[in-house]
Amino acid sequence: MTGARGRRFGVFAECLLTGVWIAVAALPLVTAPAALAAGSAHLRRHLAHEAGGWREFVADWRAAVRRGWLVGLAGWAALALLWLDLSVVRSGALPGGAVVGVVGVLAMLLLVVAGVRGAVAWRPGASWRGLLVGAVRRTVRDPAGSLALVCGLAVVAVSGWFAAPLVAPAVGVLVAAGLAVERRA
Q1: What is d(CA 112, CA 150) in angstroms, rounded to the nearest whole number?
Q2: Under a CB-based contact definition with an 8 Å cutoff, are residues 161 and 139 in contact?
Q3: Span 35-58, pLDDT tens digits
C-alpha cells in the first residue's frame, strides 16, 4: 500500500506499536508518565521522519523516569484520594453527595488529562513541574482539546472492557491524540 493511504496506515500501525511499548514501560505503574513521555517522543520522531526505534524509546524512557517516577507516584496517590472521596460519596453518608461526586469525577478527569498533556509535552531535560503546571493551564483553557483527550480515555476504557489486551495499543492512539491536541493548540 503506497501513497497517502499507506502513510496514514503506517502512522496508525506505529501508534499501536508505541502503545505496546508504553504498556510494557508502564508496568511498574509509577513509571506511566515517563512511558507516555517516551512514547510521545517516539511518535514525534516518527511523524518528523527521523530515525528512531526501541533503543531511542528506552533512552527517552530512562531520561523521563529520573524524575517522572515521582510524578507517577504523586498522580497515583491523588487518584487514590479522589477514589476514596468518591467511595464516601457513593455510600450516601455525605449531604449533597451528588454534587461532590460530579466534582470528584471532573477532578479525576482533569488530573488524568493534564497528566497526559504534560507527558506529551515532555522533552529531554524538561522540568516535570513546569510541564504539569503548563498542562493544567492548557487543560482548563482548551476545553475542546481536553474533551478530545477524555474521548481518547474513553476509547482506552472501552477497549479494556471489550478485551483487556487491546488497552496497550489503544494507549498509543491516546498519545497520538495528545500530540494532535498539543500541536493544534
Answers
A1: 9
A2: no
A3: 999 999 999 999 998 988 999 999
Question: For the segment 125-144, what is each residue's pLDDT rounded down to a tens digit?
Answer: 999 999 999 999 999 999 99
84 has pLDDT over 70: yes
**Overall pTM surpassing 0.70 (yes/no):** yes
